[in-house]
């Protein structure tokens, strides 16, 4: 079966290369062509040809290796993967400048590809920030129209109806101001493209462990776990979620409007990342965005994660579902009144004053161009 599939793929790449080159040669002459990789097949070769035509400079922004992403579905020794690796290393050397997202990738490019790169860490866009309480309430009320976990659980003395209440916030009748609901659940957020490089069964098993802690009498809040995104394995994991019997945890998997995603991150209590790099050399953008919102993160371990997540400083790193369940217990113990580790991690993130993307670009990349 490899033969026909390989032929189909080669034809597809040739057609894409012709279309892309035709499009690129129609644009006004650029001084530089900036290409993000992956995807790099056939775009690296096409961009190089276009640069020869225009006498432009080619900049490759290495976010990962395309062949390692292909290996997730085809296997490391598949002919397509081997060809893609050869192609990526060959044409990657023909660039004029190279950027990459980690120091680990910078070293790997130097040693294995003879490519000199400058590390430009991913940074959050300026709209990733903490969400004001009034905006949180508006978001929760909007999501409550569609998703059960955002609806209020009971009526409090200060609010006589559910008209101005969500699971997390309410409008005080006396003052008319938005306040956080007493006895509210903790909001746990993760995002995914539902692909093979993220094993969400790790999170589901950890949530079962969290439920067990509550049943054993540990003073923990109920949880609302929101997993956003679209992808091929979404239905598979929704099937696993539907088989869980959790009394204190609600899970929903919405597809959010683009403007609502940063608002949700800025409203959440904790982020979880299950991304494992296919190369072990790139960093999860979702964690970058979460940190932009000063949202502490629990992230699954892989080789260069320490370049982004500093254990016990801006988040926690775990290796399996048992360790994640223990971290959830520690972080949410006495929530929301107890000033514990979760609040300290958030304070550390607020104090870190991260650069946003535009500032990082100006400091790191612009000097390369004189």
Automatic annotation (TrEMBL):
Pathway: Protein modification; protein glycosylation. InterPro entries: ALG1-like, Glyco_trans_1. Residues 184-330 form the Glycosyl transferase family domain. GO terms for cellular component: endoplasmic reticulum membrane. Keywords: Endoplasmic reticulum, Glycosyltransferase, Membrane, Phosphoprotein, Signal-anchor, Transferase, Transmembrane, Transmembrane helix. SUPFAM superfamilies: UDP-Glycosyltransferase/glycogen phosphorylase. Its EC number is 2.4.1.142. It is a single-pass membrane protein. It is found in: Endoplasmic reticulum membrane. GO terms for molecular function: chitobiosyldiphosphodolichol beta-mannosyltransferase activity. It catalyses: an N,N'-diacetylchitobiosyl-diphospho-di-trans,poly-cis-dolichol + GDP-alpha-D-mannose = a beta-D-Man-(1->4)-beta-D-GlcNAc-(1->4)-alpha-D-GlcNAc-diphospho-di-trans,poly-cis-dolichol + GDP + H(+). Mannosyltransferase that operates in the biosynthetic pathway of dolichol-linked oligosaccharides, the glycan precursors employed in protein asparagine (N)-glycosylation. The assembly of dolichol-linked oligosaccharides begins on the cytosolic side of the endoplasmic reticulum membrane and finishes in its lumen. The sequential addition of sugars to dolichol pyrophosphate produces dolichol-linked oligosaccharides containing fourteen sugars, including two GlcNAcs, nine mannoses and three glucoses. Belongs to the glycosyltransferase group 1 family. Glycosyltransferase 33 subfamily. This is Chitobiosyldiphosphodolichol beta-mannosyltransferase.
């Amino acid at each position: 079966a490899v033969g026909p599939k390989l032929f189909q793929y080669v034809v597809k790449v040739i057609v894409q290369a012709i279309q892309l080159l035709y499009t690129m040669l129609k644009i006004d002459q650029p001084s530089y062509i900036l290409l993000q990789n992956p995807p790099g097949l056939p775009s690296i070769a096409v961009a190089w040809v276009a640069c020869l035509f225009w006498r432009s400079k080619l900049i490759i922004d290495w976010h990962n290796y395309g062949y390692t992403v292909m290996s997730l579905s085809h296997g490391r020794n598949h002919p397509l993967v081997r060809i893609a690796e050869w192609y990526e290393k060959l044409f990657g050397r023909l660039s004029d400048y190279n950027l990459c997202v980690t120091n680990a990738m910078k070293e790997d490019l130097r040693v294995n590809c003879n490519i000199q790169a400058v590390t430009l860490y991913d940074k959050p866009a300026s709209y990733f920030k903490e969400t004001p309480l009034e905006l949180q309430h508006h978001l929760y009320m909007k999501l409550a129209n569609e998703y059960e976990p955002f609806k209020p659980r009971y009526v409090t003395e200060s609010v006589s109806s559910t008209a101005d209440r969500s699971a997390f916030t309410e409008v005080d009748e006396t003052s008319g101001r938005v306040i956080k609901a007493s006895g509210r659940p903790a909001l746990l957020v993760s995002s995914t493209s539902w692909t093979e490089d993220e094993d969400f069964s790790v999170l589901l098993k950890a949530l079962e462990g969290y439920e067990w802690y509550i049943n054993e009498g540990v003073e923990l809040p109920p949880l609302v776990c929101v997993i956003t995104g679209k992808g091929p394995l979404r239905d598979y994991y929704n099937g696993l979620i539907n088989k869980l019997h959790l009394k204190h945890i609600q899970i929903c998997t919405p597809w959010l409007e683009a403007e609502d995603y940063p608002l949700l991150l800025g409203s959440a209590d904790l982020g979880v990342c299950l991304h494992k790099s296919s190369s072990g050399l790139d960093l999860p953008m979702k964690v970058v965005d979460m940190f932009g919102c000063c949202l502490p993160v629990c992230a699954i371990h892989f080789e260069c994660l320490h370049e982004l997540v500093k254990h016990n400083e801006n988040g926690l790193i775990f290796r399996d579902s048992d360790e994640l369940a223990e971290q959830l217990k520690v972080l949410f113990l006495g929530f929301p009144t107890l000033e514990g580790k979760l609040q300290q991690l958030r304070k550390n993130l607020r104090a870190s004053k991260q650069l946003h993307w535009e500032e990082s670009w100006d400091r790191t990349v612009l000097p390369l161009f004189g």
